[in-house]
Design a protein that fits this description.
This protein is 48% helix and 20% strand. By secondary structure, it is of the alpha+beta class. It folds into two domains: 149 residues, Butyryl-CoA Dehydrogenase, subunit A, domain 2, CATH 2.40.110; 130 residues, Up-down Bundle (Butyryl-CoA Dehydrogenase, subunit A, domain 3), CATH 1.20.140.10. A hairpin with a 2-residue loop joins strand 9 and strand 10. Belongs to the acyl-CoA dehydrogenase family.
Length: 288
């Protein structure tokens, strides 16, 4: 994730949802579900999406806040609702959907080819423009009993464990963007001369970049520590996972902001009109 985000946070986000969120959720299913849905995701035959957020629910995933409802119907379910900000939805072959079932939540595997599943117009975002997000509309979608991921009423646990993986991935992506902004700024400071010397020779920028170098190592260590705990068998490696997301994303925004200042006018443009020189940090600033 760090390496992908170093070059494009949009690509990192697509991978995050396809592999880390959808993939991790499906990996909690039965052998039959993993073979039917996880195998083609790993092989790249289909794209995966993960849908918990709604127009009125995102961080709050309590049953009363989730309006997407699954109603028992014979030996299956009828799923109705609307999910929002769903990455990969416009190209996904399968969406993992969190829905309310009575007083609890259940996770469902929803093929996008099922009758009643449609996607909305892609969102027009400030940043991460290559990461396409759109609503997923579920209009009386008929699902079989085999579509339940895990157990009925166990959806919140599936979602929270999956999102724990996601926090670590987002922390790593933040570090990737921060490192890219840092490296490009260092190169510029060495080559840009003003007031009788390179900008890198000025004490202000030396202090700023030294602090950021230390912050980068701390943020990277946090997400690696969380990942190591996860690999060691801890299903919820907190608080390191949450700390990694907090510090990684915050650092990306801070370094990108100062990178814009260091580059001056070139930091503000997408491309230079005179010769189409690409702005080196503008996209990082937007994406962070």
């Amino acid at each position: 994730m760090e390496e992908l985000a170093y070059y494009s946070n949009s690509v990192a986000a697509i991978y995050d949802v396809h592999c880390i969120l959808a993939g991790t959720a499906l990996d909690q299913g039965s052998d039959e579900q993993r073979q039917r849905w996880l195998r083609p995701i790993v092989d790249g035959e289909i794209v995966g999406a993960f849908a918990t957020s709604e127009p009125g629910a995102s961080s709050d995933l309590s049953p009363s806040a989730v309006s997407t409802v699954a109603t028992p119907d014979g030996d299956g379910w009828i799923l109705s609702g609307r999910k929002r900000w769903i990455t990969n939805s416009v190209v996904a072959g399968v969406v993992v959907v969190l829905a309310r079932t009575g007083d609890s939540l259940t996770t469902f595997i929803v093929p996008t080819s099922a009758p009643g599943v449609t996607t909305g117009t892609p969102d027009r975002k400030l940043g991460n423009r290559g990461q396409i997000t759109a609503d997923v509309i579920l209009d009386d979608v008929r699902l079989g009993a085999e579509s339940v991921l895990g157990r009925v009423g166990g959806g919140l646990r599936v979602a929270l464990q999956t999102l724990t993986y996601g926090r670590i991935g987002i922390g790593a992506a933040g570090v990737g963007m921060a490192q890219a902004a840092f490296d490009r700024t260092v190169t510029h400071l060495k080559s840009r001369h003003a007031f009788g010397g390179s900008l890198a020779s000025k004490q202000h920028w030396q202090f700023v970049m030294a602090d950021y170098a230390a912050d980068l190592e701390a943020a990277r260590s946090l997400y690696i520590k969380a990942a190591l705990r996860l690999d060691a068998g801890e299903r919820f490696p907190e608080p390191e996972a949450a700390m990694a997301k907090l510090r990684g994303t915050d650092l990306a925004a801070r370094i990108a902001r100062d990178a814009v200042q260091a580059f001056g006018g070139l930091g503000f443009v997408r491309s230079l009109g005179a010769d189409d020189t690409e702005g080196p940090v503008e996209a990082i600033y937007r994406d962070s």
